[in-house]
Amino acid sequence: MDAKLIYVKTPIGDEAVRQSTRVVQRNLRMVLVQVDGKLNVAELSEKIGNPRLVEGALRELEEGGFIATKQGAVLVREAAKPLALSTERVSAISQFSTFGKNASGHHSVVAPESAVSQFSSFGKPVLPAAGRLSQMPPVARPEPAVSGDFVRPPLRAGSIARWLLVAPFAMLLLLLLLVLGYPYDNLKPGIEAAAGKMLQAPVQVASVGVAYWPRPALLLSGVRVGESADVTIDQVRIASPLSLLGSAPHLLSRVDLLGISAPADFLVSSRLFQASLRDDAPVIQRLTFEKLTVSANDLALQDLSGEVVFKNDGGVEKASFGNVDLGIRLSATPAKGGFLLDIEGFGWKPFGQVLSFDSLQAKGLLQKGKLVIQSFDTTFLNGILKGSWLLDWSGSGLSMAGEASLARLDCRKVSAAFVPELKLEGELSGSLRLRGSGKDWNALLRSIDANLDADIARGILHGVDLGEAVRRGAGYVVNSGSTKFDRLKVAVAINPRQVVGRDLQMSAGMVTASGQFSAVADRPLEAGLLVTMQSSVSTARTAVRVSGVLPNLSAVSGR
Asked: Residue 189, preceding bond cis, omega within 30 degrees?
């Protein structure tokens, strides 16, 4: 080699100095760094102290395109294109390498030990093909390591950080695509079969999906239960859907039902609320209801919400339902053939009626086909009402029977609720017995037979003035007016055809009246009374006939 030659770095050489992974052999990199375009070969050899190593390294670097003489460097820099790496050529400097077999399967030539080998124990360097310019950036192709002395290029910290940042997002995206794209409707047959076994009734599901907010859940929409779809559920949310994986029985921590319409008989007889379920049936720990409607014939309790908590054996531990707006709360406890009920009401209007129970405490038993209210105590029409009641829907219609005691009910509210034409004031006490039947609730109300033993204290009967009729004398007609009394007792029989009052007893100081009355449908009221007026010296009795259409009555004294 000409000792006066001066070498300069090519663009590839400059890049190799900046990137330590491009030239990994120590002796080559040492010589490449010292090439500055000013020192000739002799000066480089003197500076490094090993002429043989310098000359061999310079040849290898020149062949790899990392350096060039000053004359050749002009052409290289004008082209400004990187040289391609060569992985096939074995250069003379490979004598310094400790590699075994090369990439093509041949044994490398091992030179006698020289001074050059003292500078490096590295394997064969990866260098670009000699004498060729590449249109593409150089790509390093490391040969497989055979010798334990080969040192792999270290991974850059930036690349590792990027992978650590991107990998979780990529996995999350893949999982999201899998969840969104999964054909959940394929699960319908299995879900319908499992639910049918648990409920012992056919189950149909319109669609299956998933929800992600506020918590992951499996969604069943358009659920129908029963041969004639007696039970409908708008949506079923099964929390922790992963719990459905694996072998039966599956433990479901919570199931939410939204928009349910169910007959009362289904709730009583459903296997869902019975203990000792099948071993392979799902085990539900908590069942919640929202917008629940429970019906019996055409009667319905609507917009209830509540929950049922189950025991480990599948039986009901406790169940509670209510509606804050309607003012009713129910607690249910399993009993033989049904549920024991504790009912509380505050301003509750049963079955959409105008009348309301200001406060209600009741205990009952819900069985298939009937509801038995064993006792109730309620504030009703400003008074107290206590008693029992039975409602039966086991046949083709409805029937009911009940009895109650009344104390201090406001007669103005009673008459306004039941006989608006009757204007009566006072405090009503007594007892009431009633029964009725019909194909629906309205027909039942129209067919009621009732017996009321009424005792009214400190009252006023508007529409007739009995005292004035007695004072005017026989044959004189008195229209309207009012009769004030201290006490009025009467036994009233009510049926769809007529209202009959017997054993009427009225007292107002020194004046008393007794008699009876009747009011037939579409006919004027008729009453016959014997009015007695007592004084300190005599007693006078006068027969008075009362007739007319409420609220305007006429009274005529007899002879």
From this structure: no
* Cβ pair 327, 348 in contact under 8 A: yes
Q: Three-state SS string across 515-550, please?
A: EEEEEECCCCEEEEEEEEEECCCCEEEEEEEEEEEC
* Parallel/antiparallel/unpaired status of strands 251-252 and 255-263: unpaired
Q: How far is the CA of 487 from the CAs of 429, 457, 472, 533, in angstroms?
A: 11, 5, 24, 16
Categorise residue 291: left if φ over 0, alpha if ψ from -120 to 50, beta otherwise.
left
Where residue 430 falls (left for φ over 0; alpha for ψ -120 to 50; beta otherwise) is: left
pLDDT tens per residue across all 559 residues of the chain: 788 888 888 988 888 888 766 665 778 888 888 888 888 888 888 888 888 888 888 888 888 888 888 765 555 455 544 444 343 333 333 433 333 444 334 343 333 444 333 333 334 444 444 443 333 444 444 444 444 444 445 545 556 766 777 777 777 676 655 555 566 678 788 888 888 887 888 999 999 888 877 777 888 999 999 888 889 999 999 887 666 655 556 677 889 999 999 999 988 888 777 655 455 566 788 999 999 999 998 898 889 999 999 887 777 888 999 987 878 999 998 888 889 999 999 888 886 677 888 899 999 999 999 999 999 999 999 999 999 999 999 988 999 999 999 999 999 999 998 889 999 999 999 999 999 999 998 999 999 999 999 999 999 999 999 988 888 888 889 998 999 999 999 999 999 999 999 999 999 988 899 999 999 988 899 999 999 988 778 888 899 999 999 888 999 988 6
| Beta-sheet strands, E only, within 203-337 | 203-211, 217-225, 231-239, 251-252, 255-263, 283-284, 286-296, 299-310, 316-323, 328-335
Q: Angle CA(341)–CA(346)–CA(350) in degrees, nearest 5? A: 70
526 near 515, Cβ under 8 Å? no
Residue type, 146: V
Helix, strand, coil shares, percent, the chain, to 5:
25, 45, 30
Beta strand 255-263 with 286-296: parallel, antiparallel or unpaired? parallel
Rounded to whole angstroms, the Cα distance separating 124 from 104 reads 14
Closest CA to 349 of 388, 318, 316, 323: 323
How far apart (Å, rounded) are the C-alpha atoms in residues 23 and 370? 94
CB within 8 Å of 16: residues ≥ 6 apart? 22, 23, 29, 32, 66
- Phi, psi for 354 (deg, rounded to 5): -70, -35
CA atoms of 150 and 143, how far apart (whole Å)? 10
What does the block give as tokens for 121?
């124990």
Residue with tokens 């060729």: 132
1 burial type by CB count under 10 A (0-12 exposed, 13-18 middle, 19+ buried): middle
Q: Tokens representing 278?
A: 């099948």
Q: What number of other Cβ atoms are within 10 A of residue 57's Cβ? A: 29
